[in-house]
């Protein structure tokens, strides 16, 4: 059993203020695999004070952008050396299949770190413009102390998407990982310390929701960067609005994959597992609404049923596993509740829907048919391995159904005519969309329309979120 006795605050491992303990439970065995201290308000106060001091008095914001990029380049090298350890850690704590953890949970954060460092070296930190009375200098300065609140499903992708641009901009950070998956954050703290990131620039305190709200409300926090549910995002946005505090919110989704009549369904089946079932369906970008022409409906259902029955469900440490357990018994209960609801609404289970094992928090990959877009299983984020097939008569109806959602985070269009697929993609109100595949490209901004969030991450736009603009006009 792993044991952590303190938090990473002000460049040191410090004892918690209170006696609270987080037990990290394996979703596969249902056994405790680690214990870490649980942060309270006093621990958050200490972490924010360290971050405030590092920003107001420390060297980090006063280094050149190139010097900060060099420091994160050192972190990148350390991250690469411990990449497999990171993948194994995340698989153990939250149940993601190891084959996917090695890519999504470890390699993608590493590449995101590399790319963000490269963008920072080319970023226009200061420029001069010709004004009516004289030159104007436009500076991009760090926003200040950042509260980074991250979920358990893709903890390092989300963490790096916030911490890397914030640090490169010259900010200091208090990172609050979710209590279900705190171990990867401690691992990152070890690497940051070894990389020589100055004291107080990165602080790590795992804690629950109430303590997270204390962090959001803290008067010495200048910016909140949150990824999680839309309900929690609305709460955070209201608090930030009350305090005129900057925030970026990456929230939920209920994305549509549109299969036009000329789509190659066999080729698409290679992309459906990552697009619609990744992390056992616990992903905000999940393409859980499968929109297909009535003329090809039965073909699609046959292929999805075969896929659901052949994706291996089981031990997440097995490289052959595709569907691991859900993160907690509470999450499994939620997903099973939606499966029952779908049947009550009149949808039909074509595959899956049950528990494959007596131990572990598993739900079989589930395919619903007879789904209409007004059903709750088509409108609400289930966050489990559940997809619904929705037929359409023509392309206009497909676009209308795709856009008929409070969310707008991801999506895809499948067709033999790529140029036409791009034209259809332009008509979908969503932040990211793929043609004949889905992947969040790290060079391009990631975020959502409507209730899927505010702001963008990844690419140079990810750095924009952590700067304030200052204009200096002068005569002579």
From TrEMBL:
Keywords: Oxidoreductase. The active site is at 250. It comes from the Bacteria. InterPro entries: Ald_DH/histidinol_DH, Ald_DH_C, Ald_DH_CS_GLU, Ald_DH_N, Aldehyde_DH_dom. One of its GO terms (molecular function) is oxidoreductase activity, acting on the aldehyde or oxo group of donors, NAD or NADP as acceptor. Residues 13-472 form the Aldehyde dehydrogenase domain. Gene3D superfamilies: Aldehyde Dehydrogenase, Chain A, domain 1, Aldehyde Dehydrogenase, Chain A, domain 2. It holds the Pfam family Aldedh. Belongs to the aldehyde dehydrogenase family. This is Aldehyde dehydrogenase.
């Amino acid at each position: 059993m792993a044991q952590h006795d303190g938090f990473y605050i002000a460049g040191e491992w410090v004892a918690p203020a209170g006696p609270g303990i987080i037990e990290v439970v394996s979703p596969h065995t249902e056994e405790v695999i680690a214990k870490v201290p649980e942060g309270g308000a006093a621990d958050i106060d200490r972490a924010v004070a360290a971050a405030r001091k590092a920003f107001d008095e420390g060297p980090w914001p006063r280094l050149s952008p190139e010097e900060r990029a060099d420091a994160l380049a050192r972190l990148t090298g350390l991250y690469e050396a411990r990449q497999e350890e990171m993948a194994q850690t995340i698989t153990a704590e939250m149940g993601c299949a190891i084959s996917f953890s090695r890519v999504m949970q470890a390699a993608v954060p590493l590449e995101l770190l590399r790319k963000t460092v490269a963008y920072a070296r080319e970023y226009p930190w200061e420029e001069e413009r010709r004004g009516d009375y004289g030159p104007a200098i436009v500076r991009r300065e760090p926003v200040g102390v950042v509260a980074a609140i991250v979920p358990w499903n893709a903890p390092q992708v989300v963490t790096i998407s916030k911490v890397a641009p914030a640090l490169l901009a010259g900010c200091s950070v208090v990172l609050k990982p979710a209590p279900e998956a705190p171990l990867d954050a401690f691992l990152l703290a070890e690497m940051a310390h070894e990389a020589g990131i100055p004291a107080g620039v990165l602080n790590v305190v795992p804690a629950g929701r109430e303590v997270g709200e204390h962090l959001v409300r803290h008067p010495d926090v200048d910016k909140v960067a949150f990824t999680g549910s839309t309900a929690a995002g609305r709460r955070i946005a209201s608090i930030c609005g009350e305090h005129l505090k900057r925030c970026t919110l990456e929230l939920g989704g209920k994305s549509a994959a549109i299969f036009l009549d000329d789509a190659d369904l066999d080729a698409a089946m290679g992309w459906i597992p990552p697009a619609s079932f990744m992390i056992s369906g616990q992903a905000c970008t999940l393409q859980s609404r499968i929109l297909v022409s009535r003329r090809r409906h039965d073909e699609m259902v046959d292929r999805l049923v075969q896929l659901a029955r052949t994706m291996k469900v089981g031990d997440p440490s097995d490289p052959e596993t595709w569907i691991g357990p859900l993160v907690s018994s509470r999450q499994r209960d939620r997903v099973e509740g939606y499966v029952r609801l779908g049947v009550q609404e009149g949808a039909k289970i074509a595959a899956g829907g049950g528990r494959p094992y007596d131990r572990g928090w598993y739900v079989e990959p589930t395919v619903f048919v007879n789904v209409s877009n007004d059903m709750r299983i088509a409108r609400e984020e289930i966050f489990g391995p559940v997809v619904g097939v929705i037929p359409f008569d023509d392309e206009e109806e497909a676009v209308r159904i795709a856009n008929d959602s409070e969310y707008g985070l991801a999506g895809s269009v499948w067709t033999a005519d790529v140029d036409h697929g791009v034209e259809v993609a332009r008509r979908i109100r969503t932040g990211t969309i793929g043609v004949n595949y889905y992947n969040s490209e790290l060079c391009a901004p990631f975020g959502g329309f409507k209730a899927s969030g505010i702001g963008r991450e990844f690419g140079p736009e990810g750095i924009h979120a952590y700067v304030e603009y200052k204009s200096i006009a002068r005569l002579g």
